[in-house]
Structure formats: C-alpha cells, structure tokens
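Hi all, a correction to my earlier message: I attached the wrong file for ABC transporter ATP-binding protein. Here's the right sequence:
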Amino acid sequence: MTVTDTGIVTVSASGLTLHRGGTAVLDDVSLRLEEGITGLLGPNGAGKTSLLRVLATAVPADRGAFTALGHDPGTAPGRLALRRTLGYLPQNPGFHPDFTAFAFVDYVAILKELTDRAARHREVRRVLEEVDLADVRGKRIKRLSGGMRQRVALAAALVGDPRLLVLDEPTAGLDPEQRMRFRDLITRAGQGRTVLLSTHQTEDVAMLCHRVIVLAHGRVRFEGTPAELTARAAGRVWSSPERDPGARAGWRTATGAFRNVGDPPEGADLLEPTLEDGYLLTLDDNGAEATAR
Ligand SMILES: Nc1ncnc2c1ncn2[C@@H]1O[C@H](COP(=O)(O)OP(=O)(O)OP(=O)(O)O)[C@@H](O)[C@H]1O
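and the right structure:
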C-alpha cells in the first residue's frame, strides 16, 4: 500500500498497452488512483473508454498490469474478487427499453450474484433511492428522460456497494440542470470510494475531482490535482480586442473580447487561468489536437 500527499493509492497501473486496428489505443499507460474522485479528460479518440474498459476488466490489456483494491486482475481469482467490488457505468449502458427501472437494476443485481431475492430487492430499492428514482422505479426505461436513464445506469453501478466505480462520460448529453443533479450524485457516490470519471466537461473536473488525468493519443499527458492542471496556464492566458494571431487557441467571450492561450506578447492583459486553459495548453504542448474552437 502506497500513501501519497493526498491519500491512499487504491489502483496502480503500469505500462498498460492495448492495440486496436493495428494501432496502440493505449500506449504504455501508468497511473495511480486514490480514494475520492479522479477525472479522466481527453479529446475524442484519446483512449478514455479503452482505459476504463481495461480497468473494469471488460478487456485485458495486451501488455502491462494493474492492481486494484489489493486484487490482481491478471489472475482469475483476482479478477473475480475485483469484479465483486466494482461498479461500471459504460458509455452505452445497453438498457432493454421495455424493462422497468427496477427490473433493469434487479437484472444487474442478479448478474452481480445477489441470489437471495428479498435481500436483492432491498438492495435494488436502496440504490434507486440513492439516485432519487424511488418514485419511478416501476416505469419502463423508454418512458424515462435521458437524465433519469443515466441515473438508472448509476444505480446499477452502485449495486452491492462497490469500492471502485468506473464511470464513462456519465454527464454526456444531459441538460445543465440534470448535469448539476448528476454531479451531486457522483459527489455522494465518491465518499469512501475510488471513482474514475471520464468526461469532456472540464467543469465536471473542476467541481467534482480531487485529481485529474489527461489522456491523448493513448498516453498520459498529465496526472495531478486540478489546481496543478490550472497552474499550467498561469501567465499564459490573456485578453485582446481581436484574436491574437500568435495564440495557440483563442475564442470570443461574452464581453466581446478574445480570450487567448499560449505564449502572450509583451505587456499582454493577463487573465486568471481556468482548468480548461490548463487542459488546452497541456494538449497543445504535447502536440495533441486541442478542442476545436
Ligand atoms: N475495436 C476497435 N477497433 C478499431 N479501433 C478501435 C476499436 N476500439 C477503439 N478503437 C479506436 O481506439 C481509439 C480510442 O477509442 P476510445 O473509445 O477508447 O477513445 P475515447 O477517448 O473514449 O473517445 P471518445 O471521447 O470519443 O469516447 C479511437 O481511435 C477508436 O477509433
């Protein structure tokens, strides 16, 4: 067990490599997770889903290894032990639309080996309550809103009170109100657990995460705290009336002025950096494609 400045390391991966279609979608990925919520940021195709699938033991890596919660998923007993304490919310949860919320979560609970019917049903009711869906548990999934469906998927991941939660873009496609609500649930779910949350929303990371990992082209480009990622943009964000042609990226803000990131010219009107600025510069500094502006 390793103890760092911020906490106890619960997941430790080294040299994870995964090939798909002749290319390395994960290329020598080493990382560590601690109890609490870690955000996984990266552009489309960076390898986030692939990494989550490996850590959720859905696919084995071609090379490298990891341990999670003291289990070694490289062995059959270790894999089984980890799966018993793992909750995974995949990008496409694969609902059967005619199932009710209760029936879907109950089905997942059966897969998770909760064989005693009464105890299982109690657990299903508990997790549906935890995600504020007790009132609609008898409704068919096809009749639920997108936000509610995401909460059904979170409830399924929470069955059995797992110690490790792997959440693949759970806030994607949610309206701002539902996103805030979902963030609340993730904060609650993160208490006393290790959570790895992939997202395209830098605000998710700023609001929820105590650590952040940036992945691009299958490689880890940053691993640290949100404050450290933000600090990467210190002195590298400035305002100008027109887009600065020397900027790595620049965009018009609500005030009409441009926000530029990169290497500012002499005497530039420097701005307080955000986590998004630090993220964009991290991608750009590594030659990865920054989010289109
Ligand atoms: N089975 C596969 N065959 C071929 N290529 C694949 C396969 N699975 C993934 N890839 C490729 O691997 C790369 C990483 O995909 P992955 O879904 O892990 O990225 P991501 O960061 O989750 O992307 P997004 O943010 O768009 O969900 C992509 O270029 C993808 O096209």
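Sorry for the mix-up. The chain has nine helices and 13 strands.
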